[in-house]
Amino acid sequence: MVTPESSATQNEISRDRLAELLNEDLSREYQAIIAYVVYSQVLSGAQYMDIAAQREIHAKQELDHALIISRQIDDLGNNHPESRITSRSSHSVDRLSGSRTQDQVAQSPLSA
What we know:
By secondary structure, the protein is an all-alpha fold. It has a single domain (14-94), classed as Up-down Bundle (Ferritin), CATH 1.20.1260.10. The protein contains five helices and no strands. It has helices at 4-11, 15-42, 49-75, 89-97, 102-107. Helix 2 (15-42) runs antiparallel to helix 3 (49-75) and helix 2 crosses helix 4. The termini are far apart. Residues 97-112 have low confidence and may be disordered.
């Protein structure tokens, strides 16, 4: 029989592991911000202005998320590794816009 104490112990993670996971989330928030900003700027034409405005709102929401996560990491006493920030904006924008050609899809490691 599993006692509540042993079950809780199995689900515990260290502060360092929690900080590592939060840093991964922070990296994804940064990528989303970049993708939304770029995508909002590449849209043209009157019919796309509402979509562009929505993407700008989403970018601001992602920034709010990033700030929350950043504060949580700071509260844990961990630093933010600068090397974790990578951008895949061209792939992200392509996925958001659906503008990739079949050749690009076939060659992309993200298409698998």
